[in-house]
Amino acid sequence: MTTRVADRRPLILRVVMSSFLVLWLIVAAFPFLWTLWGSFKVEGDFFSKADWLNALTGPLTIAETGGSFTSSGYYGAWVQEEFWRAAMNSLIVVVCVVCISLTFGTLGGYALSRSPYRYAFWLLLISLVFRAMPPITLVSGYLLPFFEWNLWGHLPTAIIVLVAINQPFTLWMLTSFFRNIPKDLDESAMMDGCSRFQAFRHVIIPVMWPGVITTGLFSFLLAYNDFAVTAMLLSKENQTMIPKIASFLGTTQTKGNVMFAVSSVISVTAPLFLLVMFFQRQIVSGLTAGAVKG
Amino acid sequence: MKHKTFLWFFLPSGMAMFLFIAMPIVSVLTQSVYAPHEQVIREVENCTLFGCSKATQIDQEATRALRDAEPMGRFVGPSIYTDRNHLAFAEIAEIWRNASGLGNFFGQVTNLPFYDALSFTLTYTALVTPLSLAFGLIIALAVNALPRLFRGPVIFVSLLPMIVTPLVGALILFWMIDARGVLGAALQALAGDPGLSIKASTPLMWTMLIVYGVWSSAPFAFVIYYAGLQTVPGDTLESAMIDGASRWERIRYVILPHLLPLTTFMALIKIMDNFRVFEPIVSFSAGAHAKSLSYFIYSDLGGETRLLSSAAATSVLTIAGIIVLISPVLVRTWHAFGRVRA
Fold first, then answer.
1. What is the rounded distance in angstroms from the CA atom of residue B128 to the CA atom of residue B339?
2. Minimal Cα distance from B159: which residue of A?
3. Three-state SS for B231?
């Protein structure tokens, strides 16, 4: 829309729209700020039975620790409950998943984008169906074989499973990206005597990075945010961050520590916050790439 | 591209999907027709001075041997699908005979575990998908009216609910809406009922799960609609204005048709994502009030006794469900491709 159109909006409409937007921004951001603030309080304040204002002023925090802010939640989670171990596991899983699925995905996506045959279309359609299946339905298929073959509980198992679950999405995204790179580029290289792989290696790889980085961001999010696969397939000592947070909540059998969960929730959100800050443009373009090109 | 080259390029990705997506489907299918072995019962005779008595006891060794020999369990055919925890044909027939009216019938059917999960999953999908699309469209229209300077920061904040880990985002909301949290306290004050608690009320729990769903998926719709709005043809809009179209008519006849293909795309993605709703139920510890199909499988798989066969049967039904839901899109894509080829 041109600015001229925007200028002509009636005042009432502009007021309604702006107030709606302000309301949305509060709804979107306030929960994070509130939890960040609350993570430096004790449980009695953040979950105050008496008065919600306690979460802001923190009388119990002052009474219990002497200061108006306490890092006991963070200390308890990271040191006492060894959340750092889960963070290391998450780091390993995420880095491996992103690297492997991008390698597989670029090769496969490139092939799909350059094949004129009908089976390429069928493969894409099948991977759309795979994309639609809830991961937990697959997990129930893994458990018995993994127990039988002693594969259950190890990080490499979770990594390869996440890579596979990631593939349909990665393939779709990279295929549509490679389709936008002109065919002439690699075909002229092949005219000059390159093999298909050499053309891919010397002509396509140098120009593919924007698409690969965008796809990589989404692979990162999928691996980082996963709960269903990592919670069911990893043993306790190999747990990643998200299942670890769930274990802080406690179950009917074990008592949890909510403040540990609150502080680790903030710790998990911080990297995502930075990610959006630095890669906002790529995330937005990645989201729209799939939609606009269909 | 030659077939052979294609094969080599596609092999790693294809193998990963074959081994860890296609094979597990086969594994789920087979598991769903096998049930765990029952314990081997042995009859022993205890003889004392006063005569002999017969007693039955579990033969641990034989049971273990049998389970090791056939880890799949015993073949039971489709009986797991039809038992009370899944399709429950017998129970439904029973309810049909005794129910006093259609409302009563559906009320009783949704008390059965599988239909309970199915009804929540479908309600969630049917409400969250259109609501988050509509919400995203309004945000996009509002952001589009902003001066350029503000758009970046607004997009940044709007992305947060979508990008945050679902389990974590749901926890953050749950802690606020909890009876001891800030929104929970506000709700209690509004309703004038100090005992009001989301954990105790099924309708409140469903509402909150749906609110979470809209909160977390509206940004996706917003970003895509916003990108779509940037490509609305300027001259069409201008000629509509010259022809005297009002603001609403311009939105109705120019902008919305332009955004329609995006809407179908997003509806497809959102139906897939909402149908697998799972993490918020864990975060809200809502298992008592709202179960989704994914959560139903998860609770069968976890815990002391892993009910693998039951989970497998539910998984097969879930996969069938999602395929039915997205089949219109699949058929359309297939036709579209046929037209391109022809």
1. 33
2. A276
3. coil
Is B314 in contact with B298 (CB distance < 8 Å)? Answer: no
**Which of the residues A140, A200, A287 would you substitute to probe the B interface, choosing the one with the greatest number of B C-beta atoms within 10 Å?**
A140
User: Where do the structural domains in chain A lie, given as residue ranges?
Assistant: 3-75, 81-293
Does the CB of B313 have a partner CB in chain A at under 8 Å?
no
pTM for this entry: 0.90
Task: Tell whether the model's pLDDT for residue B186 goes beyond 90.
Answer: no
Look at B7-11, B43-47, B195-199 and tell me which has the smallest mean pLDDT: B43-47
Residue B305, pLDDT > 60, answer yes
ipTM of the complex: 0.90
The full set of domains in chain B, from first to last, is: 78-111 (no CATH), 118-290 (1.10.3720.10)
Domain A81-293 listed as CATH 3.40.1350.10: no
End-to-end CA distance of chain B: 20
Which tokens in the block code for residue B162?
């979508």
Q: Which two tokens stand for residue A245?
A: 């947070």
Instruction: Name the closest residue on chain A to residue B163, using Cα atoms.
Output: A272
Q: Which of A129, A160, A163 sits opposite B323 (nearest CB)?
A: A129
What letter does residue A79 receive in the DSSP assignment?
I
Q: Are A161 and B308 a contacting pair at CB < 8 A?
A: no
Phi, psi values for residue B147, rounded to 5°? -65, 150
